[in-house]
Write a structure and sequence with these properties.
Organism: Streptomyces pakalii
Radius of gyration: 30 Å
Helix content: 55-70%
CATH class of the domain at 92-317: Mainly Alpha
Subcellular location: Cell membrane
CATH superfamily of the domain at 92-317: MetI-like
CATH topology of the domain at 92-317: MetI-like fold
Strand order of the largest sheet: 1-2
InterPro entries: ABC_transporter_permease, MetI-like, MetI-like_sf
Number of strands: 2
Order of helices and strands: HEEHHHHHHHHHHHH
Distance between the termini: 75 Å
Number of helices: 13
Family: Belongs to the binding-protein-dependent transport system permease family.
CATH architecture of the domain at 92-317: Orthogonal Bundle
Keywords: Cell membrane, Membrane, Transmembrane, Transmembrane helix, Transport
Length: 324
Amino acid sequence: MSTVSTEAPPGADRPDGPRRPHAPKRRGPRREKQWPAYVFLTPWMLGAAVLTLVPMAVSLYLSFTDYNLFEAPSWVGLRNYREMLTEDPRYWRSVGTTLLYVVVAVPLKLVLALGAALLLKSLGRGRSFYRSAFYAPSLLGASMTVALVWRALFNDGGTVPDVLGAIGIDSGGWVGNPDLAVFAVVLLTVWQFGAPMVIFLAGLQQISPDLYEAAALDGAGRWRQFVSVTVPMLSPVVFFNLVLEMIQSFQVFTPAFAISGGSGGPADSTMFYTLYLYERGFTASHMGYAAAMAWLLLIAIGVVTLFLFRTSRSWVFYADEEGR
C-alpha cells in the first residue's frame, strides 16, 4: 500500500505561494539585432578616426616641434607657445583684429537676420521668393569669386567709394585704408545673413499667437510685445545663432585672404588669426608654429563657448522650464 506524502512543498506557507525559479534572460536575439547598427556606423567611426582624431593627435604633437614640411620634426617643447605669446607682436595684432571683427560682425549680422525674419513673417504673398532671395548670399558669399568682386567694389575707384563721394562722404578706397579695410570684411560677412534669418523665421513661427493676443489685451503695443513676448520666446534661437556665428567668425579666412590679396594688409589691418596661421604654416613653412596657433584657437573658442553656455542661464528662456 502506497503512502501519500502530506509534506508541503518549500515556500507553500508563504502568502504569495511557492517561489519559482527565474527563467534565464535571453540576450542572444538582442545582440543579433545590434550588429547591423555597428555595420552602418563603421564608415562614420572610421572617418572620425582617420579624418579627425588622428590629424588632431598629429597636430598636437607638431605643436611641440620645429617642423618645416620638408625635414623631420624636431622636439622643441613649449618654445612655439612661448614665442607666440611673448615674442611675436604680429600674433597679438591678429588676435586684436579677429576680436574686433567678432565683436562688430556677429551682432550686426544677427540683428539684420532677425529684422529680415520679422519682415518675412509679416508678409503674406511672396514670402517664399523673398526668403530665397535673402538666403542666396549665404550660398555665394563664402566663395573666392564673390570676395574678389567685393574687393573691387570697395577698392579705389570702386562703386562704394564713388557712391559715398557723390553724397559728400569722401572715404576713398576701403581696401587700401588701414582704418576701413577690416570693415569691408565685416560688411561682406553681414551680407551673408540668410542662414540665421531662416532659423529666426522658424523660431518666430513657433511662437503661439495667443501670447500676442494676451499682451494686446493688457495694453501692450508692438514694441512692448516684441520686448516682452518675442525676445524671451526667441531667446533659445538667439543663443543657438550666437554660438554658431561666434565659432564661424573666429575662423574667418576667405574674405580676409581675398580682400587683402593674402597679405593681411594694409598695415596688418586685415591680418586675421587664421590668415596669419596660414602665412606661418604654408608661406613661412613653420608648420609647428601654425599647429600651436591652431590649438590655442581651439582652446579660445572652447572657453568663449563655455562662457556663453554659463551666462545663458540668466537670459535664455525655455518654455518647458516654466513650471519647474
